[in-house]
Amino acid sequence: MPVPQTILTRKTKAAIFLVFTIDDGGEEAVRDALEAIPGLNNAVSSRAPEAALAGIVSIGSEAWDRLFAGPRPRSLRPFVPYEGEVHTAPATPADLLVHIKSDDMGLCYELGAKITEALGDAVTVVDEVHGFRYFDLRDLIGFVDGTENPTGQAAIDAITVGDEDPDFAGGSYVAVQRYVHDLSSWNDLSTEEQEAAIGRTKLDNVEMPDDVKPPNSHIALNVVEDENGEEIDVVRDNMPYGDVSGSTVNGPGTNGKGVNGTYYIAYSATPDVTEEMLRKMFIGDPPGTYDRLLDFTTAVTGAQFFTPTLDFLDDLPPAADAASAPAPAPTHRSDGSLGIGSLH
User: Fold this and answer.
1) Other C-beta atoms within 10 Å of 8: how many?
2) Residue 135 region, left (φ>0) first, then alpha (ψ -120 to 50), else beta?
3) Given a cut of 70, is residue 77 above it in pLDDT?
4) Measuring CA to CA, which residue among 313, 224, 317 is closest to residue 271?
5) Share of residues in the chain with pLDDT > 90 (%)
6) How much helix, strand and coil, in percent to the nearest 5, is found in the chain?
7) Distance of alpha carbon 333 from alpha carbon 324, whole angstroms
8) Which pLDDT score, from 0 to 100, does residue 332 have?
9) Of residues 139, 145, 272, 291, which has the active-site annotation?
């Protein structure tokens, strides 16, 4: 099995998320930067190995065809937007994702600066978010985030492409969204109303029984099962972010003040699972029972990428022929099936 990038780490105290688009003519410089990123990661992390620095680079569907000739990851496709009766999950421009995490924000900054310098004027930064740990891994809404993440071998299995796509075995798919919270409205709710929206108790982080948990609660709609009724896992590495000036506004980004929210990032062995989670959140299951939490937080970005292995970055495929048309990206299944056994 090729060596994966360092996705699975303990929960760190800080993170930086950088999303880029590739400018016209920037493909060669981006390829050079991709080859340099593992070395930059090692150079910076060696200065403070105890701080658990990891820098992960991932590539979007349209960018893949501009950068590489030959085969592409079997399930790599653009982010699927969802437009529900009330809320929308938008798709926004994105070619590259750099996810940096460490216990030391200074190290995150140093690695991010070096990667951005390596990419130079070949790219445009379309989103930059600095995340932080908030108390005992809580979101800014006051609930613990990531409780249901798998661990150990289960986590490896959840995010790792296997023999089903041998050319890209060891890689992962990753979806990201930046959410902006309306904390003023959220904080107007009672604790009991907040717990019903999440499906978990706030203080001691205990999931509600299925016969008590509302069907439109966040946790209820984030469960995806296979044909045997077994839950299919993803690994979330969400982080809160924000400006203190945004903590008291009456809505996301009002009056030119800062904003705060959650940077959602989920790694998986197939994008089908995260797509189904988002469909249930924004459309509802059944339709109309959308995620109650969305009444208090708004998705403002949405993108999907493939995270190749270190072996891939060390020996990139030949460059794409600029004169040839890119291969069409796989599309989301229109029949409503996830394509995982009989799972729907």
Assistant:
1) 20
2) left
3) yes
4) 224
5) 84
6) 30, 25, 50
7) 26
8) 46
9) 145
Query: What's the confidence (pLDDT) of residue 331?
Result: 45
- What residue has token string 């929206």? 197
Task: Give mean pLDDT, residues 11-30.
Answer: 97
CB 243 within 8 A of CB 254: no
Pairing of strands 14-22, 172-181: unpaired
**For this structure, is 314 an active site residue?**
no
Closest CA to 313 of 113, 98, 34, 60: 34
Check pLDDT > 50 for residue 334.
Answer: no
Phi, psi of 290, rounded to the nearest 5 degrees:
-70, 165
CB 294 within 8 A of CB 87: yes
CA angle 181, 186, 187 (to 5 degrees): 120
Q: How confident is the model at residue 301 (pLDDT cuts 50, 70, 90)?
A: very high
- For residue 147, is pLDDT > 50? yes
CA distance 185 to 250: 7
The closest alpha carbon to 66, from 107, 30, 32, belongs to 30
Q: Indicate the pLDDT class of residue 245, thresholds 50, 70 and 90.
A: confident
Q: Which residues on neighbouring strands pair with residue 173, listed in sequence order?
A: 268, 306
Banded model confidence at residue 144, pLDDT cuts 50, 70, 90: very high
Q: How far is CA 160 from CA 91, 157, 167, 246, in A?
A: 24, 5, 13, 37
